[in-house]
Design a protein that fits this description.
The complex is a heterodimer of chains A (about 675) and B (about 550). Helices cover about 30% and strands about 30% of the residues of chain A. With about 675 residues, chain A is α+β, with helices and mostly antiparallel strands. In chain A, strand 13 and strand 14 form a beta hairpin. The radius of gyration of chain A is 26 Å and the shape is globular. The two termini of chain A are about 45 Å apart. The chains are: A alpha+beta (about 675), B alpha+beta (about 550). The interface between A and B is large, with 65 and 86 residues.
């Protein structure tokens, strides 16, 4: 028997465990209730249980363990990080509060900024000044650093962030502070800004360093509990945690770089979707992950997810590599209401899973997106989750009726209206990551997952003129599955502004040589075999005078003038795609050099399934009346059992496909086929 | 003025269901957002690309605001007049697809001060003019000027064609660029502005394809009606009555103190604002009518419905009057460069009047200025003339249940600061300190926001500055027993020369010290939570004396 690869996605309610046999011969899924007080209990227990019950294996058979956790994200949202101090350049202690001096909302007089993570008395200024050209104007006042370290220690902080101006050009002052802290305050968790975000723009770098210090000890404590528990359970093999860039890192690295995990949850789903779609031959996709309260969307071009140029998480700007994921407050539990002007609005308020939609019968009487689907008949009116959860269609109807009466519309028009409005909200998020970044959504495949994604994908695709939708075989566990398909990945960056001309060639090769050295050291540290190593080099470029850069891939195997010409060509093409024009006479500047180091991890293998032997009728389980906007009437629709669909089956819309954790809608005029990997592909 | 009666649309807006209108409204909002993003990202000058001092807007064929992106409220004043003015100047039948108009003049439409340059492009669908894509960007130019009247402030551009049927009118561009002091930046910023409108035009046409032109235009009308309903519902939540307020105004561009007054009458679902102000002055603080309107629309929306779509429907129940030829409704040839301080004070004036009517929603006076610091000279590192503009935030007024925000832009503006790591690389200046001003938040049960302090050193050249603001003598007022916030002050090293009001010439190594005003508090400081007073004291936000005297802290 071959070894097992284990992916564990630990959420607030459930811990999902995905088990894949190394040779691709079997996949098993296990679900246990989470243990929020100490998530490691459910994780270790669930893995052992899942291995025994679902795979007939033991912890000794495990060859690798991948883990997605929201520990850092939740600590940031709930303000449960540690007491943190800051040491910074004289004159700049308030920068953390001032930020970019913008208020968060233009018109809302009651708006607030996110809580400042270091109180003002714990922000210590010390004499030092590096200039914009790297020159040291004022040497570091080491006595002041020592004094600050003692004060912070006496004040009881657990972590310290260090941020000096221009530290990305010359990190010596920050490094010296780290040494002094090691002498004066060795137990402190320390983050230097150049280590987490070696790029210009001081506030964003500062914010990243502070968030990392604020979360670092929380992550370290978590790992210190989980590691021994996995040991005790007898789990073998390397252990990794997902990061926001869509890759995984070792437990050891996560301990120092907690900030890299804050968007890891949605990123793992994107990677799962990318791999499932890639296997089926689709490299250009838009991922559509719709859950109970929110929807995450991301765009992948040519099999490569985009990294965001800048990202705010819960109001805190973070300059760590993160996938460009947009989140919108639209999910199955989003509540519909009528505003003072008579318009129907949906979300961002959500009924969540408790009390949940009105049809759950747990006390909520306000109409949600799920209730609208129950009334329309797109969702099963008797039960959800494959019969495990009974629902009350009458309560859904009553909730929609109440809205309909106030709108002066029919019940069905109101229910359809809720779906249309929530679809428009989601379409806006997709336009942001596609049209606004110079991509035409019509060139992409929409990959729908999450509990509510497959239900709304067909309409969303029509709204955006996307010609094709892919619904993976297991849309509810794509995150856990994604964990088994993720490579080890880390990013290194160096800001060095240089005009792109023949004089810059030496600098370009020197900077990349320096970054490569760091990447090679990381490969060695992580024990990645030479054959599994890959480096991707990009340069952030702009016209001199612009301030936003475009990432341009460094072409392989070119040097000298040929290299310059190819970089220029690629930059101009990207600029034209993004902004619609090229300023040919303007000089181009290279700003930030980046390397992404990827250590290929042996991936879970997926094997194509044999063609279906039985006819489609064998998979038909019922007929349901579904109200369709296209017909303005209730139409009798066949309902198919997803578990009985096989490659080669072809379904003409309108139709419904049900499975335990999702319902897929096929609209009139659309055709759904099942591919060899059991994905449903909807076209038309 | 904005909303003239018109021929009925082909599809009656009343027959559209609210869901279709909501969905189309969403699509229009994403067009102006996209245009804004393109403008900021493709632009060159720090003021647009980093500080985001720009706005985008769609107008219908009649010149009514369809949708403004959430950028800078005062910019609406630069945009709401432009289509009307084009219609006044041109034969509409002569406007062609691909024409692009450029303008900046405050008195003949298309501007509230000369550095805000507007580009407007008509959107044609199957040969018919259906809407306008417009944007404005603040070009950091026209520096080292006098401000007695508008002719001193820069080149006045009425809306004229920069492109004719898609082809650049080189003569016009050459004339404009010759009159600008940093032409290379201007040219590239203008390119970004053209690109932003192009995107708006294409996307709007795409919506026509999707929904049908008639339905789309009807939805545009319905969206105005929708905003009007929301606005009327919001005004109804203010108790009907007549409310008045007055406040003093001083500026370092002006001798003496002025008095501004307002009478606000709330009558069911309509609101009437009558302002009184001294005759316009020979200084840049005059506000033109479109600027006053944009200011009032901002204030009403902020008070009654932050989520109301900012379109021409919002304007309908709001009626504004100010004496023509006064500072608040200036006539040619009034200078207007620093009109933003005046606008900020108009918002405070309205809030002051309505404080007794809606005490739980009103806020105390904000910093009451938009302190502007402009530096120019020849960069010794490059030999090139540079202009560096930074507007500096300050205190945000205390609220009925919480403190004001510290160190932010307020009301009519919300530009970012320029990162110091960008500032020092681009200009021969050093930002030595950048911090909150201790003691500047007005004492109250809820404390007013703190002002900002910036200390700038000049390096290796002679630098001319133009730094202006307001609230030098009387700090921003507090409400219901609270104290006022800290005042503005500008200090210079010894030996700095002052050729005119608000102007200075600094030599290498000399510094300027800029302090912006804080904001007023809310409620009796003695009623402030004791832990909050102690925390402010421990953090150095208030002095020990203030803790004792203002807040009555005993231990």
């Amino acid at each position: 028997m071959s070894g097992w690869r284990v992916g564990v996605d630990s959420g607030g309610t459930f811990t999902d465990i995905c088990l894949v046999a190394e040779d691709g011969s079997a996949i098993a899924v296990w679900k246990v209730p989470s243990t929020p007080d100490d998530p490691s209990t459910a994780i270790a227990g669930g893995v052992v249980e899942g291995l025994a019950s679902a795979a007939g294996a033991t912890p000794g058979d495990v060859v690798s363990f991948g883990h997605g956790t929201t520990v850092a994200t939740n600590a940031l949202i709930q303000g449960r990080g540690v007491a943190t101090g800051l040491i910074t350049t004289d004159g700049y202690r308030d920068l953390l509060e001032i930020g970019r001096q913008r208020r968060p909302h233009l018109y809302d007089l009651q708006c607030d900024k996110p809580a400042v993570l270091v109180t003002r008395d714990l922000r210590k200024e010390v004499g030092e000044r590096v200039r914009h050209d790297g020159r040291i104007e004022t040497p570091l006042d080491e006595a002041a650093v020592r004094e600050a370290a003692r004060q912070l220690k006496a004040a009881g902080v657990e972590a310290v962030a260090v941020m000096f101006l221009y530290a990305y050009l010359d990190p010596r002052h920050e490094l010296r502070v780290r040494e002094i802290l090691a002498e004066e305050f060795p137990e402190a968790f320390v983050t230097c800004s150049h280590e987490v975000a070696p790029e210009f723009r001081e506030f964003e770098r500062l914010s990243t360093a502070v968030v990392n210090s604020y979360l670092g000890p929380v992550m370290a404590r978590y790992i210190d509990r989980l590691g021994p528990r996995l040991d005790a359970a007898g789990l073998k093999g390397p252990r990794r945690i997902t990061q926001s860039n869509g890759g995984v890192m070792s437990f050891e690295m996560a301990r120092n770089q907690a900030v890299r995990t804050v968007l890891s949850g949605p990123a793992t789903g994107v990677v799962g979707a990318m791999n499932v779609a890639g296997l089926a031959g689709h490299d250009n996709i838009i991922t559509f992950d719709m859950g109970g309260t929110s929807t995450d969307v991301a765009l992948i071009a040519d099999g490569e997810p985009r990294l965001a140029a800048e990202m705010e998480v819960h109001g805190y700007p973070l300059k760590t590599p993160m996938l460009d994921i947009q989140t919108v407050g639209a999910g199955g539990g989003s509540i519909a209401h009528i505003d003072a002007g008579g318009h129907l609005k949906v979300g961002p308020r959500s009924a969540g899973s408790v009390p949940g939609p009105a049809c759950y019968g747990l006390g909520n009487t306000e109409a949600t997106v799920t209730d609208a689907n129950v009334v329309l008949g797109t969702l099963n009116g008797a039960h959800l989750l494959g019969g495990r959860m009974a629902i009350d269609a009458g309560k859904a109807m009553a909730a929609i009726q109440a809205l309909a009466a106030r709108l002066g519309l029919s019940v069905m028009d109101t229910a359809q209206g809720i779906v249309s409005v929530v679809t428009a909200n989601m379409a806006r998020a997709i336009r942001l990551i596609s049209v606004q970044r110079g991509h035409d959504p019509r060139d992409y495949v929409l990959v729908a997952f999450g509990g509510a994604g497959p239900l709304h994908a067909a309409r969303l695709a029509r709204e955006l003129d996307i010609p094709r939708v892919l619904v993976p075989r297991n849309p509810g566990i794509l995150c856990a599955l994604g964990l088994l398909m993720t490579d080890l990945k880390t990013n290194y960056a160096q800001t060095q502004q240089v005009r792109l001309d023949s004089d810059s060639l030496g600098i370009i090769s020197d900077v990349f040589a320096g970054l490569s050295t760091r990447a090679e050291a990381w490969f060695a540290e992580e024990g990645i075999a030479p054959g599994d190593r890959a480096l991707r080099r990009t340069i952030d470029m702009r016209y001199i005078g612009q301030n936003y850069e475009l990432p341009i891939a460094l072409p392989d195997g070119l040097a000298g003038t040929a290299l310059l010409e190819e970089l220029t060509r690629r930059f101009e093409a990207a600029h034209r795609q993004m902004y619609g024009y090229v300023a040919a006479e303007e000089p181009i500047q290279a700003v930030t050099f980046r390397i992404e180091a990827v250590g290929a991890v042996r991936q879970a293998e997926m094997r194509p399934a044999p063609a279906a032997t039985s006819g489609l009728d064998a998979a038909r389980m019922a007929t349901r009346e579904v109200w369709l906007a296209e017909a303005c009437a209730r139409v009798s629709c066949p309902v198919y059992d997803r578990d009985r669909l096989g490659p080669g089956h072809r379904i003409e819309g309108p139709a419904i496909v049900e499975q335990m954790d999702a319902t897929t809608v096929v609209l009139p005029g659309q055709v759904a086929t099942v591919d060899p990997y059991l994905n449903i592909v909807i076209e038309g | 003025m904005q909303d003239t009666p018109s021929t009925p649309p082909a599809v009656d807006p009343a027959t559209l269901d609210p869901i279709t209108v909501e969905v189309i409204g969403n699509a229009l909002a994403s067009i102006v957002e996209e245009m804004g993003e393109t403008l900021v990202r493709a632009s060159y000058s720090t003021n647009i690309k980093e500080r985001r001092d720009s706005s985008t807007c769609l107008f219908d064929a009649k010149g009514r605001t369809l949708c403004q992106a959430s950028h800078i409220p005062i910019h609406l004043g630069s945009l709401i007049g432009v289509v009307d003015e084009i219609a006044r100047r041109c034969d509409m039948a002569d406007i062609r697809e691909g024409d692009i108009f450029i303008g900046n003049d405050a008195h003949t439409g298309g501007g509230t001060h000369l550095p805000d340059i507007v580009l407007a492009e008509p959107i044609f669908y199957r040969g018919e003019l259906v809407a306008w894509a417009t944007n404005t960007a603040h070009h950091a130019d026209f520096v080292d000027r006098a401000h007695a009247h508008i002719f001193q402030e820069g080149l006045r551009i009425p809306p004229v064609r920069l492109y004719r049927e898609g082809k650049l009118v080189q003569d016009v561009l050459d004339l404009i660029l010759l009159n600008l002091q940093v032409p290379r930046e201007r040219l590239n910023d203008l390119r970004a502005q053209v690109a932003a409108n192009r995107q708006g035009v294409e996307r709007f046409k795409g919506l026509c394809d999707r929904y049908g032109k008639d339905k789309l235009l009807a939805a545009g009308d319905a969206l105005l009606d929708y905003a009007e309903r929301l606005t009327r519902a919001g005004i109804r939540t203010i108790p009907s009555g007549v409310y008045t307020f007055e406040d003093s105004y001083e500026s370092n561009e002006l001798d003496g103190t002025l008095t501004f007054k307002v009478q606000v009458e709330v009558k069911d679902d309509e609101i009437f604002l009558a302002f009184d102000a001294p005759a316009q002055v020979r200084a840049g603080i005059n506000l033109v009518e479109t600027g006053l309107l944009a200011t009032v629309y901002y204030a009403v929306k902020a008070l009654i419905g932050p989520e109301i779509p900012p379109n021409a429907g919002l304007f309908r129940p709001i009626h504004v009057k100010a004496p023509k030829g006064s500072i608040l409704n200036a006539a040619p040839p009034a200078a207007v460069n620093s009109r933003l301080h005046t606008g900020q004070r108009v918002v405070d004036l309205i809030f002051g009047a309505l404080a007794p009517a809606m005490p739980d929603r009103i806020i105390a006076a904000c910093n009451g200025a938009c302190v502007n610091s402009t530096f120019s000279g020849v960069d010794p590192r490059t030999g090139q003339f540079y202009v560096y503009l930074e507007t500096i935030g300050g205190g945000f007024g205390a609220r009925a249940s919480k403190d004001g925000l510290d160190g932010v832009h307020v009301h009519l503006t919300n530009t970012s600061n320029l990162p110091v790591e960008s500032l020092e690389a681009e200009y021969p200046l050093v930002l030595e300190r950048y911090e909150l001003v201790n003691g500047s938040g007005g004492a109250g049960q809820f404390r007013g926001g703190m002002g900002l302090f910036r200390q700038v050193r000049v390096e290796g050249h002679e630098c001319r500055t133009y730094i202006h603001g307001s609230r030098f003598e009387r700090g921003p007022w507090g409400l219901f027993g609270a104290k006022e916030g800290g005042c503005a002050r500008f200090d210079f090293d010894e030996g700095v020369e002052f050729p005119a009001k608000a102007r200075a010439v600094l030599q290498s190594g000399q510094r300027v010290y800029i302090t912006t005003p804080g904001a007023g508090g809310y409620g009796d400081p003695k009623a402030r939570d004791r832990d909050a007073v102690r925390r402010d004291l421990a953090e150095g936000r208030i002095t020990a004396e203030s803790a004792r005297e203002d807040y009555g802290l005993e231990d």
